Amino acid sequence: MTEVKVINGNLSKEEIDAYVKFATEKYHDKVIKSMQIELDGEYVNLSYQFADVPFQRIRRITGYLVGDLGRFNNAKRSEVSQRVVHGTN
């Protein structure tokens, strides 16, 4: 459930729900954590805070883009352990 804060006035539940629906349709690929509705005369300013997106590190190992070695067989795991790591100075 999205946390909603109304500033400078009052809105009915139906109006708040309409703004929340608008935001979730506009940002359908994100999760809205909280929303601030600021009333300014005839205008309404909407501010959003989105939930954090989990991040997974992807590496290129032995020609494959992988996040972890869980699907590698023993031969590929061996190749990974024998890799030469090049550093920068």
Structural notes for this entry:
The chain is of the alpha+beta class and 89 residues long. Helices cover 25% and strands 31% of the residues. The chain is built from two helices and five strands; from the N terminus they run E-H-E-E-E-E-H. It has helices spanning 13-26, 74-81; strands at 3-7, 32-40, 43-50, 59-61, 64-66. It has a three-stranded mixed beta sheet, with helices on one face. Strand 2 (32-40) and strand 3 form a beta hairpin. The model has no long low-confidence stretch (mean pLDDT 86).
Feature tags:
single chain; alpha+beta; two-stranded antiparallel ribbon; 5 strands; 25% helix; rod-shaped
Rg, Cα atoms, Å: 24 Å
Structural class: alpha+beta
Number of strands: 5
What profile does the largest beta sheet have?
3 strands, mixed
Classify the helix fraction into a percent range. 10-25%
Physical arrangement of strands within the biggest beta sheet: 1-2-3
Mean pLDDT over all positions: 86
Low-pLDDT stretches: none
Task: Note the beta-strand portion.
Answer: 25-35%
Form type: rod-shaped
Please provide the ordered H/E string of secondary-structure elements: EHEEEEH
Helix count equals 2
Distance between the termini: 49 Å
Entry summary:
The protein has 89 residues and is α+β, with helices and mostly antiparallel strands. It has 2 helices and 5 strands.
Note the topology.
Layout: E1 3-7, H1 13-26, E2 32-40, E3 43-50, E4 59-61, E5 64-66, H2 74-81
Parallel strand pairs: 1-2
Antiparallel strand pairs: 2-3, 4-5
